[in-house]
Automatic annotation (TrEMBL), chain B:
NCBIfam families associated with the record: b_cpa1
Bias type Polar residues, positions: 665-696
Biased composition (Basic and acidic residues): 599-609
Entry similarity comment: Belongs to the monovalent cation:proton antiporter 1 (CPA1) transporter (TC 2.A.36) family.
Location in or out of the cell: Cell membrane
Species for this entry: Sphaeramia orbicularis
Encoding gene (name): LOC115426621
GO annotations of cellular component type: plasma membrane
Superkingdom in the source lineage: Eukaryota
Protein name (Swiss-Prot/TrEMBL): Sodium/hydrogen exchanger
Predominant place of localization: membrane
């Protein structure tokens, strides 16, 4: 569409981003619009405060960890390409991509997705989920609901089940195995695709023609398909 | 068992039933003469001379009406008892079939003895007395979260599906009538449409009675069940519409349009009536603390009132009563005492059970009549068309709705939805209400045949078919703790990313409602001190209960070395409940099929009474949503935990059984193995009782799911 390609020029480095992450033109545009909404002071980059201003994220138990995945302590700011790159993890997995290809592993491969989840647990980045980290995560998720004994009991069980080499911590491989087995939320979560796909199609229609009205609507950008596996 | 039933049958036969009105529309009105037995009222056995005082007399006439009603109910209940004792039969034949057969037997006996038609179910008695308890029970125990999540699909099936069926069956039947012009020539299109409207409706009573014995996955269950509840609005409106069209000299396009508006008005009207009464009931229950014994009464009175009001206004009574029940449930449960809660639930189950049994028995009895008119083409084509139209309707609608849903309705589910569309007593009553016309008897006969066919054939074969098709049952294999944690993490992660990207998801409206609920409704409708239950309170109660139970039973000793054994179901149960309390769960939760005969919180209810009354005054604490309150909450929590320690030490010193040593070093893996077994029973007790009040952040936690967890794990 003629109009959208001119709009695409607004987005810096859009073409490279599209190639790198596999997002479609519409997706990039909508993400850019959302980026602009979040970037209230129009600095061109996002900061911690912008993320913290997202209301619902504040009540999310792991909200701070999610923000940490975007804006980690080393970096002060988050520009648009980095924003998109993080979100690229959440695209549906391409079944056509094969490991033996020469391209680097795309962000939405299963392993990368699991890595992303792993990094939410593993805050200190040592490659293992220690007991303390798991406890912290559970505490965040459960809040003040449980006594310490119950918490420890749960953590103990979890480590016991997943820790195959009995070193008291869960490594990435053990994590992968655990996520692969059984009927965890990973598979059923894929059902979100159906809804978001529909909304994406709706959004495509809107995005295609003068999408400035979206910026006025607060939560109007619904494009990404979120499959985790 | 059979002898018992037969005895009752024989005792029932001499009694006529003038209490139940015979169908007035029958061409040969069978005004039931007072049965031979009642003549005894005019004679009285006397010991003395006729003029002296009578020492012993029988005056049956005095008590006739209530006596007979009670006897019918007694017959129904004893039959039900008998079935549950009869071994393998209930596994194969659903209860509804057995009850109809008993009804047929009784009807046959009565007919054989008196050579006239047995009493039949009057439409009034059915709609005013027998149907409301069933629907109220269904509405009260409706799994709320699941229902609202699937509401779009349910409405889709209920409204569009019913319309499709009605129009399809009506028009095709008219075609059949045209083809068989010789015998069916005088059945007009409107008559066919009228007939279509009453025969197309799926009946909640029949559906429930069959599905409750099957364990299908809960999504499927709620789809069929929800559809059968909601299509009442469409059915009744269409029925009344076509009936009024029949009375009009001619039908114009405007009338059809108005009819369409009526559907909307009836449905929404019923909804609002129900909402109104539900809120008033909730408000009333707030003030029942001083007269707890009559608290359950308000629930029933207001619900019934909503039903009657909407019937008076010609709105949808079923919608009203379901809405009323759903609305008032959470507030009433928070306001009334535990015993009242139990009473409410038990009475609901009891009444709905009796109602259902009576309905089926009378379906059987009413089948034995003089007034059948048979027509092979009509009956067979009706049967066929019902099946065909329902199947195609479900297929088409599902194809469309699957694009919009997150969990697709699989082909197997569709088959069960189509096949599980049972017809029941609503059709039967509606057909009797038709204005008289030459072919009315044919309609009655056909309706009876369709009902019997669906209940017997479809009802009996659905279970083997389900097994054959391997409908996605509730998963018996329980995920491990780490999987649970991980899946919750993913849920939160996705919700967070959705927020970052600005994607609403389905939580948006739910969150909005929860906020509104918390801010206004709960404050207004729930008693002051009940407004939020602290989790500390809950844990404390748990410990209290553990202490009490320690006096009654000894929990099994756990081998301290076996901390790597597989988890017991109860432990997983408690852990899962702890996890799910706070966390939104996209997964298909495991819930038991809705059951008319059991309460899920059975095992735990009586244990929870004592501690609860003692500790109502413990401080309130809000969870996540009101993060700003945390500073002042700290000290409450501290006090709470202080009491916690006190409670712990009590249990520590009082009993010497090792699983109780909760105060020991909790980081040692040994103690965790020991505390875990004691946890589940107590926490399961608390969760069920307190779950209704617990507000989870942003409405993300499944509130009602908790009470079902126990049952699913135990099974």
């Amino acid at each position: 569409m003629g109009s959208s390609s001119s709009r695409l020029d607004r987005v810096p480095g859009a073409k490279d981003l599209m190639e790198e992450t596999g997002f479609s033109e519409t997706n990039i545009l909508c993400l850019y619009d959302r980026f602009e909404v979040l970037d209230r002071e129009e600095r061109g980059y996002l900061r911690l405060e912008d993320f913290e201003a997202i209301q619902q994220l504040a009540v999310n138990p792991i909200g701070d960890r999610i923000i940490g995945a975007f804006v980690f302590p080393g970096r002060e700011t988050l520009d648009f390409p980095s924003f998109v790159r993080v979100l690229a993890h959440f695209r549906p997995t391409d079944t056509t991509w094969s490991r033996s290809g020469s391209q680097p592993e795309p962000a939405n491969s299963r392993t990368r997705k699991l890595r992303f989840a792993f990094s939410l647990y593993d805050q200190d980045g040592d490659g293992k989920i220690s007991r303390a980290e798991l406890t912290e995560m559970l505490q965040a998720m459960l809040g003040m609901q449980v006594t310490d004994e119950q918490l420890q009991s749960i953590v103990g069980r979890a480590i016991q089940e997943a820790d195959l080499d009995r070193d008291g911590a869960i490594s990435f491989d053990e994590f992968k195995k655990m996520a692969a087995s059984g009927q965890t939320g990973l598979k059923s979560v894929s059902s979100i695709m159906y809804r978001t796909k529909q909304q994406q199609q709706q959004q495509q229609y809107i995005c295609g023609e003068g999408g400035t009205e979206q910026v006025h609507l607060k939560h109007s950008c619904q494009t990404l398909m979120f499959i985790f596996c | 068992m059979d002898a018992l039933v037969l005895c009752l049958l024989l005792s029932a036969y001499p009694l006529g039933c003038p209490g139940l009105t015979p169908p007035a529309q029958l061409p040969q009105p069978h005004n039931l003469p007072p049965a031979p037995g009642s003549n005894g009222s005019h004679r009285s056995l006397s010991v003395d001379l006729p003029m002296a005082l009578r020492v012993f007399s029988v005056d049956y006439h005095h008590v006739q009406a209530p006596f007979e009603i009670v006897l019918w109910i007694m017959l129904a209940s004893l039959a039900k008892l008998g079935f549950h004792w009869s071994g393998r039969v209930p596994a194969v034949v659903p209860e509804s079939c057995l009850l109809i057969m008993v009804g047929l037997l009784v009807g046959g006996v009565i007919y054989g003895v008196r050579h006239s038609a047995p009493p039949t179910l009057s439409a009034e008695a059915f709609f005013l007395f027998l149907l409301p308890p069933i629907v109220l029970d269904a509405g009260y125990f409706l799994p709320g979260r699941l229902f609202f999540e699937n509401l779009g699909t349910i409405l889709w099936y209920a409204v569009l599906g019913t319309l499709w069926n009605v129009l399809g069956i009506g028009v095709s039947l008219y075609g059949v009538c045209l083809l068989a012009h010789s015998s069916l020539g005088d059945v007009s299109l409107l008559h066919c449409l009228l007939f279509g409207s009453l025969i197309a409706a799926v009946d909640p009573v029949a559906v429930l009675s069959v599905f409750q014995e099957m364990h299908v996955n809960e999504q499927l269950h709620i789809l069929v069940f929800g559809e059968s509840l909601l299509n009442d609005a469409v059915t009744v409106v269409l029925y009344k519409l076509f009936e009024s069209f029949l009375r009009l000299p001619s039908v114009s396009g405007l009338d059809v349009l108005l009819g369409g508006c009526r559907v909307v008005v009836v449905g929404l009207g019923g909804l609002f009536v129900g909402l109104f009464f539900g809120l008033v009931a909730a408000l009333t229950s707030r003030f029942t603390s001083r007269a707890q014994v009559i608290a359950p009464l308000f629930v029933f009175l207001y619900s019934y009132l909503s039903y009657l009001t909407s019937e008076m206004l010609h709105l949808s009574g079923i919608m009203a009563i379901v809405t009323c029940a759903v609305t008032m449930k959470q507030y009433v449960e928070a306001n009334v005492s535990e015993r009242s809660n139990t009473s409410i639930q038990y009475f609901l189950k009891m009444w709905s059970s009796v109602s259902e049994t009576l309905i089926f028995i009378f379906l059987g009895v009413s089948t034995i009549q003089d007034v059948h008119m048979w027509s092979w083409p009509f009956v067979c084509s009706t049967l066929l068309l019902c099946l065909v139209w329902r199947a195609t309707g479900v297929l088409l609608l599902t194809a469309v709705v699957n694009k919009l849903r997150r969990n697709a309705v699989t082909f197997r589910d569709q088959f069960i939805i189509a096949y599980g569309g049972l017809r029941g007593a609503i059709c039967f009553s509606l057909v009797f209400l038709i204005d008289d016309f030459p072919k009315k008897r044919l309609f009655i006969t056909t309706t009876i045949v369709v009902i019997l066919f669906t209940v017997f054939v479809q009802g009996m074969t659905i279970k083997p078919l389900v097994e054959l098709l391997d409908v996605k049952r509730k998963k018996r294999a329980l995920p491990t703790v780490s999987e649970e944690i991980h899946s919750r993490l993913i849920d939160h992660l996705l919700a967070g990313i959705e927020d970052v990207v600005g994607y609403w998801g389905q939580h948006y409206w739910k969150d909005k409602f929860e906020q509104f609920n918390k801010k206004y409704l709960r404050r207004f409708l729930i008693r002051e001190e009940r407004q939020a239950r602290s989790s500390i309170l809950r844990v404390y109660q748990e410990l209290e209960r553990r202490e009490q139970r320690g006096d009654e039973e000894a929990p099994p000793l756990v081998d301290p070395r076996s901390n790597s054994r597989p988890l017991l179901p109860e432990e997983m149960d408690s852990i899962r409940r702890i996890l799910s309390r706070n966390l939104h769960n996209f997964n298909k939760r495991q819930t038991p099929a809705y059951s008319r005969h059991t309460l899920h919180q059975d095992a735990t209810m009586d244990r929870t009474r004592k501690p609860l009354h003692r500790h109502q005054s413990l401080g309130d604490r809000y969870t996540y949503n009101t993060i700003t309150h945390w500073p002042q909450v700290e000290d409450v929590e501290f006090n709470g935990s202080h009491k916690l320690r006190a409670g712990l030490s009590r249990s520590h010193t009082v009993c010497s059984i090792s699983p109780r040593h909760v105060l020991q070093d909790t980081s040692a893996p040994v103690s965790t193995a020991q505390t875990a077994p004691a946890d589940p029973r107590s926490s399961s007790a608390t969760a069920d009782q307190v779950s209704p009040q617990h507000q989870t952040p942003g409405g993300r936690g499944p509130k009602k799911q908790l009470s079902f967890d126990l049952e699913s794990e135990k099974k």
